[in-house]
Specification:
Shape: elongated
Strand content: 5-15%
Oligomer: single chain
Number of helices: 15
Helix content: 40-55%
Number of strands: 11
Structural class: alpha+beta
Order of helices and strands: EEHHHHHEHHHHHHHHEEEEEHEEEH
Length: 526
């Protein structure tokens, strides 16, 4: 109809919303600005509530409130009940509001990223990744616990205000005091639990501390990259895939993209392993230049501080200057985070590095090498066994790896694998040469790329406890044993100690944050 100005819902043109200046913004852009604002408030509130003085106040709040209640019970006639009751309402609110607000903003951010409001079509659906529901559950639980804490502790002040309405020693008077003690006990328990909980303390990889790996492949092809990816949260995993696409145009020597990414991660890890003497930056530059073009190398080495401008509003950031989702700083944090989760593979890599430097006979004059790592303690009745196998023969050969776990679930696991032939290494590397780091990086890359790495989960029956053996056999197809070893581990059925899931998550979170903070001071550009 002519002159009909009704809304056409079938139109593909995005809806526009006027901003305060009278301009029109597309609905998608308006939503993105709103979500970014929420995320900035989340980051600010979490970091403020994590400040040491604020945390100490929260830890001391429960004992202080109990002390006030005891003083009220003992010196009833000398204490003004109205004043102490108002204090016991206002003071807890002031102390607990920052952490409560931070929990609410964390939940709002998670709802924007994982919830029904996330309608982005240019990225993978975060809910499709394993562990997404676990992350949401932890954030919801933190918000619920914060609400319980602030309600229980603040309610005590209201009960104290009602205290004067009952005669001293009466049933109502005693009930109020006993209820107050119970509520404060709940508040103290909630405080202990919440102060040990994991928070989103950074802008980069904000969900990474909440993620616990649940699924992984037994055979690892690009070792460090596969291990990092297995420990990534859904948001980081989508960025990890996007980074690979961004690397492709800059890769030298027609390397496969996944292999180039693996060598970049190896170079960053090796630079962390060989000390912080100031020469590592230009050595790392040399290694990265052999993998990608100089422009991409500079973007990988770029620190976040160099992206900030004193005239931020007037500066224009081109696509070339746009920071990568993964650079030296973020890769260092990811490596720290992953090593805190799975130190076993990194122990094997360090042993390989040391054997390269010393020219160990297992690398220079052997047909086969099998390295292994199993935790000394397996909490929750399960653990992770890592094997790295090298074939120093002249041709490919299929071998059989058998892992026998008495009382295990299952008892026997068998893998038929074909490691690539690896050239035997020459003698030890001279430690005083200028090219030591590059030579070590080259040899370590060859061993990690040609070596076959198995990540095997082992588990025991629920009644199994104490010291248990784990047998590993490496055999040729004809049944000839190449290598055989028996390891032992202490099996625990309760989630406790350094190997428990919660402790590993907290350690991974704290190490990752510290790595991100320290990188800026340890990395020195040429």
């Amino acid at each position: 109809m002519e002159g009909d100005e009704s809304l056409d819902l079938s139109s593909s043109t995005p809806l526009e919303i006027p901003d305060p200046d009278g301009n029109s913004l597309p609905l998608g852009e308006f939503t993105e600005i709103k979500e970014n604002k929420t995320d900035k408030l989340r980051n600010l509130s979490v970091n403020f509530s994590s400040l040491l003085p604020i945390k100490l106040l929260r830890l001391l709040l429960g004992p202080l409130m109990i002390f006030c209640l005891i003083v009220l019970m003992v010196f009833t006639e000398q204490i003004n009940t109205m004043e102490i009751g108002i204090f016991m309402i206002i003071f807890p609110l002031i102390v607990l509001l920052p952490s409560w607000y931070a929990a609410e903003k964390q939940f709002a951010t998670a709802e924007n990223d994982f919830g029904p409001n996330n309608r982005e079509t240019d990225r993978l659906s975060l809910n499709s990744f394993p562990g997404a529901e676990r992350i949401l559950s932890m954030i919801r639980e933190n918000r619920l616990n914060e609400r319980i804490r602030i309600v229980t502790i603040s309610s005590v002040g209201i009960l104290v205000l009602l205290h004067d309405n009952f005669e001293e020693g009466s049933l109502g008077n005693v009930s109020i005091l006993m209820t107050s003690l119970i509520l404060l006990s709940i508040g103290v328990a909630q405080t202990i639990r919440l102060e040990r909980s994991i928070q989103m303390r950074s802008n980069d990889f904000k969900y990474l501390p909440f993620h616990a790996p649940t699924q992984h492949s037994s055979q690892m092809h690009t070792v460090l990259s596969d291990l990092i990816e297995a420990h990534m949260d859904p948001d980081s995993a989508s960025q990890w895939a996007a980074w690979l696409d961004e690397l492709k145009p800059s890769i030298r020597n027609k390397l496969p993209a996944s292999l180039a990414r693996e060598r970049i991660v190896q170079a960053v890890y090796l630079s962390k392993m060989t000390g912080e003497d100031g020469t590592n930056a230009w050595k790392l530059n040399n290694i990265l230049t052999s993998i990608v073009r100089r422009e991409m190398r500079d973007r990988i080495m770029q620190q976040e501080e160099s992206l900030e401008s004193p005239f931020e509003e007037d500066s224009i950031v081109t696509e070339k200057d746009k920071p990568l989702p993964f650079n030296y700083s973020t890769l260092s944090r990811l490596l720290e985070h992953t090593e805190a989760w799975q130190p076993g593979l990194f122990r094997i890599i360090r042993r390989v590095r040391n054997d390269i430097l010393s020219g160990n006979v297992s690398l220079t004059d052997s047909d086969w090498r099998m390295d292994h790592d199993l935790p000394l303690t397996c909490s929750d009745g399960q653990g992770d066994l890592f094997l790295m196998i090298h074939n120093f023969g002249e041709s490919e050969e299929t071998v059989e790896v058998e892992v026998v776990v008495p009382d295990g679930l299952p008892i026997t696991q068998t893998f038929r694998v074909t490691p690539q032939p690896t050239p035997s290494l020459p003698a030890a590397i001279s430690l005083n040469t200028m090219s030591m780091t590059e030579t070590l990086a080259d040899r370590l890359s060859i061993l990690m790329e040609r070596g076959l790495v198995l990540w095997i989960g082992v588990a025991w029956a629920s009644k199994s406890r104490g010291r248990h053996p784990v047998q590993i056999h490496l055999r040729k197809e004809g049944g000839e044993t190449i290598s055989s070893v028996v390891l032992s581990t202490d099996v625990l059925q309760r989630s406790s100690g350094a190997g428990s899931t919660q402790v590993r998550m907290r350690r991974a979170s704290s190490l990752g944050i510290e790595a991100l903070r320290e990188v800026g001071s340890t990395l020195k550009m040429r």
